Amino acid sequence: KAVTTRSATARCRVSLSAEVVALLRAGDLPKGDALGVARIAAIQATKRTPDLIPLCHPIAVHGVDVDVSVVEAQPSAYVEITATVRTADRTGVEMEALTAAAVGGLAMIDMVKGRDRTASITEVVLLEKLGGQLDGGRLTVRARCEEVIESDGRESYLRARIRTENGIHTAVLT
């Protein structure tokens, strides 16, 4: 394979109680800045991916951007960790982006578990892959909406049951 510029973006969502969301917004969690810790954990995990995922190639990561935000959607609020990883190499950085997002989510759970035993990772998904031989761009699937499960009412967030050629799935559209 030729060396090309590559990037990948992944997202993790952590479902939280209303109490913990209020504590996050006020900066009053007993263990400290949970959003900052999740961001640092995600960045650190990017570089450690080959140690965590068997047969994953070590690569030179050129950049990592991590965004951690609190989303107050109905019926439950969540923290969203989005990680974008960039490189110029012979292999992609999808696993690095997915690992970053997932470990950021695990760090968030560790930070809030004393106040919210129900905190859970509800999603880890690859959103985008750019570069390389199979430059995929945004990941697309041919699907038909079966049922809207949840919406923010502003058309910027929608969770729905969709039908694809592989069956019925729950999808989040942002």
Descriptive notes:
With 174 residues, the chain is α+β, with helices and mostly antiparallel strands. 27% of the residues lie in helices and 41% in strands. A 5-stranded antiparallel β-sheet has the order 2-3-1-4-5. It is globular and about 50 Å long. The model has no long low-confidence stretch (mean pLDDT 86).
Overall 3D shape: globular
Tell me, rounded to a whole number, the average pLDDT: 86
Instruction: Indicate the low-confidence ranges by residue numbers.
Output: none
> Measured on Cα atoms, how large is the radius of gyration?
17 Å
Question: Could you give the distance between the termini?
Answer: 33 Å
Give a topology summary.
Layout (H helix, E strand, L loop, with lengths): L3 E13 L1 H9 L7 H19 L8 E11 L5 E13 L4 H19 L7 E11 L6 E2 L5 E8 L6 E7 L2 E7 L1
Antiparallel strand pairs: 1-3, 1-4, 2-3, 4-5, 6-7, 7-8
Helix pairs in contact: 2-3
